[in-house]
Amino acid sequence: MPVIGILNCKMLQDEIIYLIQNDSNIKGVTVVENGEHEEFVQKLNENGISYTTVPMIDSFPDLKDRGDETAAGGGQNDADVSLIVWNLKLGLHEQPKILKEEVYKDLEFFAKKVDGIYLLYGLCGNVLGHVEEDFKDICPVIILRDSDGEVVDDCIGATVGGRRKYLSLLRSFNSIGTFIFTPMYEATVDEFFNYSKNRGGLTEEQMIEMNKFMFEASNYQQIGRLDTGLHYTKDTLPMLQKFADTYNFKIFDLEEHGSQEIFDDCYQKLKEKINLKEMAATV
């Protein structure tokens, strides 16, 4: 049974829960315990999803050492798969070059363990656009792409349906700087915007002043709440309200709703690539 590796931004953990709940062919889920996994396994527990954990990715056997029983985990048909989920930290987004270095390093290591990798990232600072080509001779990798075949800009772009729809949404704000927050953004807003404080030794007041300067320079004035259609992340309004009050932002609900279409489509494309790879290996 094929093993699919999921290397993901922590911001997209709800979408992984959705995929697991909607694919009956997933026969096993393994989570890497790297310090970024706690919220994810809590949601697995809340939704009654069985899983195992490994303390680090190298605890999982390499492909060349994996027996059929280890790979299969009891799979009964050719469509069955198992997953290894590896959440990466949010702070990587702050420096795109470091994000690329970390993702590429992890992909190289992951490729030894799995039959294909679902990379739940977008361009993210325009550094991951060539990842599929760069790994084509190493391991099947699928990044988030829209129906036009374009790599999405970021997780918001994936949720709203791709680059054209994302651009249309941004234009609808009439040049008013607007943050678009999903429930996971709301839940992690303090972590996301205060990463520099923890890394650079800034005080809370210094971090707020630095953020205020950046937000005002970019004309950010409001936050649009995006309903993803998923409800695994709960009770986020107090965290969002605290952030909005700190920076004097208006909060409103977006008329547009997100969907899981891109996440579903790219997941299916990866499974197809893995099947083609296995068929070629048997010829």
From TrEMBL:
InterPro entries per UniProt: DUF1638
Q: Give the organism the record lists.
A: Methanimicrococcus stummii
Instruction: Quote the protein name from its UniProt record.
Output: DUF1638 domain-containing protein
Residue ranges of every copy of the DUF1638 domain listed in the record: 88-254
Q: Which domain of life is it from?
A: Archaea
- Which Pfam families does the entry link to? DUF1638
